[in-house]
Write a structure and sequence with these properties.
CATH architecture: 3-layer Sandwich
Distance between the termini: 21 Å
GO molecular function: 2 iron, 2 sulfur cluster binding; metal ion binding
Organism: Beijerinckia indica subsp. indica (strain ATCC 9039 / DSM 1715 / NCIMB 8712)
Number of helices: 0
Shape: globular
CATH superfamily: Rieske [2Fe-2S] iron-sulphur domain
Protein name: Rieske (2Fe-2S) domain protein, MocE subfamily
Strand order of the largest sheet: 2-3-4-9
Radius of gyration: 14 Å
Cofactor: [2Fe-2S] cluster
Pfam family, one: Rieske
Length: 109
């Protein structure tokens, strides 16, 4: 028997809470995430902590699709979570995002 569950979408913030090419921190049930908004008005979500030194990425700099960690300048692609530059080597987990009624929602498990 296969058990399937319905995806749970959690409201993370209002669209207007994030400037273009910026990031915002979102905490939910003892977990921390980062919501990204690109210049193209696209939204993405990843785990909130850098995989290298556990510094919050919401304090980092978003350039295009690349988020730079504020501590050691490690870089990740916010679309895929892929580690893009030393000293980071472990990818970030990403989460589905959708926008409804002016709210950014992420799907978490």
């Amino acid at each position: 028997m296969t058990i399937t569950s319905t995806p749970v979408w959690i409201p993370a913030c209002a669209v207007d809470d994030i400037e273009e090419e910026d990031v915002i921190r979102f905490d939910h049930e003892n977990r921390t995430f980062v919501i990204y908004r690109t210049k193209k008005d696209e939204y993405f979500a990843t785990d909130g902590m850098c995989t290298h030194e556990h510094v919050h990425l919401a304090d980092g700099l978003l350039m295009g699709y690349i988020i730079e960690c504020p501590k050691h300048n490690g870089r990740f692609d916010c679309r895929t979570g892929q580690a893009k530059g030393a000293p980071v080597s472990v990818n970030l987990r990403t989460y589905p995002v959708k926008v409804e009624d002016g709210r950014v929602l992420i799907q978490v498990d």
